[in-house]
Design goal:
- The chain is built from twelve helices and five strands.
- The protein is mainly α.
- The protein folds into two domains: 108 residues, no CATH class; 132 residues, no CATH class.
- The strands form two sheets. The chain has a three-stranded antiparallel beta sheet with strand order 2-3-4, with helices on both faces. The protein has a two-stranded antiparallel ribbon with strand order 1-5.
- The protein starts with a helix and ends in a 6-residue tail after the last strand.
Length: 260
């Protein structure tokens, strides 16, 4: 009985999200007849609701491509991506990955990464509250043990690495009048909410490898070594204090491999 109900639900959802599907069995008018026109209206209302939710969650992405293109892209996404949560604010978590594979948008190579910033912003907004790592805790660490420490990312923190200036693009579109991006180099963007407000930070280029390694649970020593190879101008103290000051981390963790 339960399996039959689940199958009916899946068939109903599938018919709602695909215009070429027939009206599901059992969906009739009060007279007991099938009304494809009425079901089409309901189907359209569902698409309108889902595309509107995506537009609200990805406003910069919509501005970059225009409302008409965004609506078509959002409808293509919605066909095979049902909401996984009753909270519509959570809809579209994997929309950036869909954009990356959406061939009509392939000329805008930066579009998916801009959408990743917006998705990270939404996750940060809903993330658990946690106090950021206190700089005093870092200064209290004995210098000889510092290299063996790992930093635990803040629950709201996310790092977006891009070959494009996506942080500058996102920032420019926070204004009514969008100014062109002058420096078209790669950017690493930290999205984090250490307090009440979500912040989007463009990291210094020389700190990008260091930050990426730390977010992958590398020790401070290993992350610094990788950063120096990638950028000889990297400064360990400046980068560490800078990231901690932004609230990127919430705790220190001893490397288990070096614990007696």
């Amino acid at each position: 009985m339960t399996m039959d109900f689940a199958a009916s639900q899946n068939a109903f959802a599938d018919a709602l999200l695909h215009a070429d599907r027939p009206v599901p069995d059992g969906i009739t008018t009060a007279r007991g007849t099938t009304d494809a026109a009425r079901f089409a209206i309901y189907r359209n209302n569902v698409f309108v609701g889902l595309t509107r939710a995506l537009a609200q969650n990805f406003p910069v992405t919509e501005r970059l491509v225009g409302k008409q293109f965004f609506t078509a892209m959002a409808r293509a996404y919605a066909q095979d991506h049902k909401p996984a949560s009753p909270l519509i604010i959570e809809y579209g978590g994997d929309f950036p990955d869909f954009i990356a594979s959406f061939r009509p948008a392939s000329d805008l190579a930066y579009l998916a990464d801009v959408a990743r910033i917006e998705a990270a912003w939404r996750r940060a907004y809903q993330a658990a509250d946690a106090a950021p790592l206190d700089l005093a805790a870092l200064s209290a660490v004995a210098p000889e043990t510092l290299a063996d420490l790992r930093l635990v990312p803040h629950p709201s923190a996310d790092l977006i690495r891009s070959d494009h200036p996506v942080g500058s693009i996102w920032s420019a579109h926070q204004q009514d009048m969008v100014m062109p991006v002058a420096d078209w180099r790669a950017q690493d963007v930290l999205v984090v909410r250490p307090g009440m407000t979500v912040h989007v930070h463009i990291l210094p280029p020389q700190d990008s490898v260091f930050a990426a390694c730390l977010f992958k649970a590398a020790t401070l020593g290993a992350a610094a070594e990788a950063a120096l190879i990638a950028a000889p101008e990297f400064d360990f103290g400046t980068a560490l204090i800078g990231l901690a000051s932004l609230g990127a981390f919430s705790a220190l963790q001893q490397d288990e491999g070096n614990v007696p």
